[in-house]
Amino acid sequence: MADEKSKLSLIETISLAVGFTIGSGIITQTGIGIGMTGRSIFLAFLVSAVLFLISFRPLFMMSTLLPRTSAAYTYSKELIHENVGIFYAYVYFLGRLTIAIFGISFAQYLASLLPALAGEIPQRLVALSVLTLFFAVNLFGVKAAAKLQNVMCVILIGGILVFVICGLGQVDYGSFFTEGFFTGGFGGFYSAVSLLYFAVGGAYIITDFAPSIRNASKVMVKVIAGVTLAVCALYMMMGVVASGSVPAAEAAGQPLTVGAQAVLPNRFLYGFFIIGACLGALVTTLNSSFVWYSNSLIRACEDGFFPKSWAEVNRAGVPWKLMVIFYLFGAVPAVLGMDLTVLSKMAVGLTILGTCVPMAGILNLPKKYPELWASSKYARRYPRWRLKIMVIITYAVLATQVWSLFAGNPLWANVIILVYIGAVILGLLVRNAKKKAPGKK
Fold this sequence. Notes:
Helix content is 76%, strand content 0%.
């Protein structure tokens, strides 16, 4: 009973899902999405949310029946094959390039308040400095991280609401659907849908916390769906304001400060939006990412798929070696002044590619856990043929999104990804050959 009481309640689960969903994605990727599709960005949010809920169905089902920490990695290894788990871990690892986006975006938004920091060198120094600051803070452990996250989430929502409420009345709806709408055609629209996938779909992360959620099998999927659709509605309104309060061409590829300057002439409200919503979202996401990314790979390190020493923790219980690696993931692109659009497409594309990996595990769950499956609510509703169709749809959605993101990248970016994935596959082949060699078990 005590264990059950210590688990997350429904309200706490909703708060956790909202915190994971409303974050840096909306701040860093809205302008990039407008550059891809123009004012139809608000529809891209909606389509992205719907496709997310459809394509993640296998993961939701597995997490309700078989709650696991580090869910995607565990399902890949346990329900499919150990090599698949290794492959997932390495794709996830490189996908943590997302941490660089936060530092670079922070520098851009800070410059809107302090124009002296708008130059190329100051931008790189600010991005590196904020990464270094939160790296140092997390080395000591952040016990109050959850409370800080909740407070900042409230301020963040307040900043977004100020932007939306003040901005909706200033949109030129007469020309909204005729000028700057669907500018990139279907290809550009779907690229925006793919880019925004995790801006609206962050709630899936609570599947990693399924063992700690009270009545997870009953409430978790409902929480994910409800939070995703509610946040999507807020983001859609934000997209309308960001792309409709100024000419779409001016907002394309730019931070949200462009729209905020047009709809928030009051310096106090403008400052509240930049500090509370933009910088707040980036800071909280960056702060939580160091610990989240590092802890998510500890199991893979302990299993020997990465150097086991990487899992070593300091006196504060922090896996500091993994944190150093992710710090470098953020610092190198920041120092090089890497293009934010390319970086976003690489990082999000790799993240989506990684989520493809465990989805097929749902096909093996009835065989590996027959009693669990037979007693579940899914047994009658999902015969084998329906499970196969669901997985096919999932892979079709995710594969097209990965393709749409990588297709528009410069050659060098895709070469890096292909060489890396090729090296991972080659490493797995060598590993298998060694295991099959005489004298090996």
